[in-house]
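Data card: per-record layout.
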Amino acid sequence: MKNKNKQKGYLTAFILFLTICGTINAQNYKGSVYVESTDFSERNDSLIVCFNIKVEANAVPNCSSMYFTPELRNGKQTMDLPYVQLNGKTRSKINSRWFMVASDEWLSLYDAPQMIVNANKFTDENMTYQTALPYESWMDNAHLYLRQELIGCRSEVNLYTYKLSDRVKMAPRAPYEVQSLVALVAPKAEVKTRNRQGSAFLDFQAGRSVILPDFRRNPVELGKINDAFLEVMGDQDAQITGLFIEGYASPEGRYTSNDKLARERAIALKDYIKNRYMLAENLFSVRSTAEDWAGLKQKVEESNIAQKDRVLAIIDGSSEYDAKEAQLKGLSVYNTLLRDIFPELRRVEYQIDYSVRNYSTTEARQLMNTNPENLSQLELYSVALEYGKDSPEYKRILMEIIPKYFDSDPVAMNNAAALLIENGEENTALRLLEKAPALPEAWNNLGVIYMMRGELDKAADLLNQASVGGVTEAAHNLQELAKKKEDELKRK
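The structure for this 492-residue chain is written out next.
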């Protein structure tokens, strides 16, 4: 606009010179101007401005110029768009002479109009103005005005302003899709300790605690124990570090007798294992539970026996154990308990604790499909990285194998959830992230879920916490969150 004003000033000075040196007949301003806005819209990141101008004959005197300048206003910011110049017949000739004699310095200051029209006093002039310019956010609330300036024969100026449009017509926009980043955690190295657990329902002769390998069910039950030990001891990478054995008795009989019986039967299994596999005494820990009332309650709750509520009330009562047994004997259902449930309580439980050596990534890759329980989370994670993040093996290891063997580990839950988020499985990811409440990377991933769901305030809180916790992905996600909020404001 600055250059255009200068240009107008130069032309006015030249007109005054001609007025002094020659004769120009002034004409009265007659006729009308009609303006119609046809387009004021945003398309393909451009602002489109289009309107029609009709200038009646004789509206522009021979020695005058009429300027039409579109203007954007939004209350704080304004912008002039390229203008239209309409010249009377005499003014057109004057301008032509001026351009011929003007110096390069003056011409360099000239701001060329969008179009120049040389008016004919006998006919109307119909013009269509159209321009496009890069769209900026402040234009969302801009109004479109048109300034009409008539510079007369003696440099007098008449100014008129038209309001063409109240607001830009926005093109339909799809909601902004955030480009979020999930955060994974590299597991830490661990001392690999594993265990094998089982229960043996051994049969003993009445009142005795010596294990007879061929007595009743004992061959089958001892076979289970032998299989577990052979599997661990046959693994050259494993070393037994401890054995835990606990004996249980049913509530049948006096409590003191059952206490002695449960302890002796646990010791009997310890001696059997120790002698059979020639293990050191200091590897064993032995414990006993005289009467397994907790186990009895669980099995009754799972059953459909008669008088179920009465049985449970006795179990939960405050009576001494022998008194509870007497109360059970008074029920008609007691024989059912004695036959179907009590035998399941007479058992010896065992746990084999062992350590496993560390493996290289090449070894871990070979073991992944044959003996994955011997691998640490870090070893499995390293195999996944070796396959590559775009491979199906990478996803299977992080989403299936690691969570199976490390189902309570926060790092395992977070990493599986991260891939589930990328896979669009938000609900499952949320359940896993509940198991990692103190992990900053999990806060980031929760923030991503809430951002995707449109719960932007929740997302902001979590992402800010994650950012403070040092998660680099959170800073990127906060930028995406700002873009999402800005987009929602535009769409209101």
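Known properties of this structure: Residues 1-29 have pLDDT under 50 and may be disordered. The CA atoms of residues 50 and 130 lie 4 Å apart.

See the next section for split statistics.
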